[in-house]
Amino acid sequence: MKKSDKCNKQVSLQRHINYVDNIRDNLNRYNGDLTLPEIAESAGIPFSTLKNILYGNSSDCKLSTAASFAKFLGITIDELVGSDTLTEDAKESLSIYHELPERSKYLARWFVKHQKALCSNNDSTKSVAVMIPKDANGYLHPTNEFKTLSIDDFSDYVKAKAFIGIRIVGDYYMPYYSPYDTLLIANDRKPLKNEHCVVLYYGKIKIVTRIVRKENDKKIVEYIPIQNRKNRISEHDVDEFIGYVADVYKDSSNKGA
């Protein structure tokens, strides 16, 4: 055997062992309450295959097996085996996404879909995606329904800052906002004192103001709903801070939409 062939085989073997080690590490980090036989059944692979991988048989992992493990763990094959086909930024984004609670993942998926829709628009006009929330039991809830709104007629400040819109579909926020208003949201800074901002709180959209106070030399940040200023929402209890209201688009044609 040529020396170069021998080296190539050694590199290939080492790479394969590293891949299997990465699979093994990911499986060992699984913190669910399933037993090994239940994991094998859920992943759709033989229990013997799972044991071989976990306990050192590095020759028993086909691509189909890796795909089954990745699907079960809710990660990509690249993350499972460490094949370095993703950029560092992509890996970081995926890692952050996996650690989010489900309600935050919903918002992240929704935002990515809306950005994709905007980027696919070849129009030269400046526009933002506007979410149409669901009105349920007196609260606004995020949805996957959205429209595109041109903001060409707004100030350069709004065009530069606004990244998303949220339509008001109920009368809960009157006299501040009517059911025909669209809030244009920016997120380049913390909201100013008495400035309206939007948060996601236990899966509900809330329009609030942000206050900062000190108690026993400790900084406390709270949000006050504009509908009921007696209420206080701790910053720690907020699911997501979406942004502050940079401007409002008023259009009576929204009625009945």
UniProtKB/TrEMBL annotation:
CDD domains: HTH_XRE. Residues 34-80 form the HTH cro/C1-type domain. This is Helix-turn-helix domain-containing protein. Gene3D superfamilies: lambda repressor-like DNA-binding domains (1.10.260.40). It comes from Faecalicatena acetigenes. SUPFAM superfamilies: lambda repressor-like DNA-binding domains. PROSITE patterns: HTH_CROC1.
